[in-house]
């Protein structure tokens, strides 16, 4: 990684597996609260789309944080022809919040952080989309504060701009006081993380943990296993 001065990380789905939390909450809700025969994988695809739509409404000021959180569940079930009320959505959110307290880093993502935090020649930082308070709770639960100082954590909800908007990448470059070409960013979302970073002049590594194989640019390092990603980064840093 010639010329690299900083390596940044997305958080949700990159440093930890968010789907494990959703599935655990979904299984409990559909067992005791909402009648549904829909497989989690199908629900999750719909839910992620609804969550993104509701998040954009929250960021634009159209909805409050609570409305964003609850409406994404209501909308997802509605898309699957299942009606739930706000009280049921609150139960889903409460179970999800409880499960988040027990979240853990992916094994080799933690190893990457452990190795990098000991280096003096590479800065590390966190750049994540989401409401500020919500993301900080995840950071605390994941114990990421032992790797990142406050000035190395960038949350879209605090900055009123989200990935893939170039403004957020430019802001981070400025705060790090680094040339964009000296920054590498690792993320699981091809559009938000990878393309967004590259268009801002950064380098990017695509963590395609779901093996979607949707990256047609062979020049972008792409990995579906965090172990392979770890080995790649360590080898590159040896050069």
TrEMBL record:
<dbReference type="GO" id="GO:0046872">
    <property type="term" value="F:metal ion binding"/>
</dbReference>
<keyword id="KW-0479">Metal-binding</keyword>
<protein>
    <recommendedName>
        <fullName>HAD family hydrolase</fullName>
    </recommendedName>
</protein>
<dbReference type="InterPro" id="IPR051400">
    <property type="entry name" value="HAD-like_hydrolase"/>
</dbReference>
<dbReference type="GO" id="GO:0016791">
    <property type="term" value="F:phosphatase activity"/>
</dbReference>
<dbReference type="GO" id="GO:0044281">
    <property type="term" value="P:small molecule metabolic process"/>
</dbReference>
<dbReference type="InterPro" id="IPR023214">
    <property type="entry name" value="HAD_sf"/>
</dbReference>
<dbReference type="InterPro" id="IPR036412">
    <property type="entry name" value="HAD-like_sf"/>
</dbReference>
<dbReference type="InterPro" id="IPR023198">
    <property type="entry name" value="PGP-like_dom2"/>
</dbReference>
<keyword id="KW-0460">Magnesium</keyword>
<dbReference type="Pfam" id="PF00702">
    <property type="entry name" value="Hydrolase"/>
</dbReference>
<dbReference type="InterPro" id="IPR006439">
    <property type="entry name" value="HAD-SF_hydro_IA"/>
</dbReference>
<keyword id="KW-0378">Hydrolase</keyword>
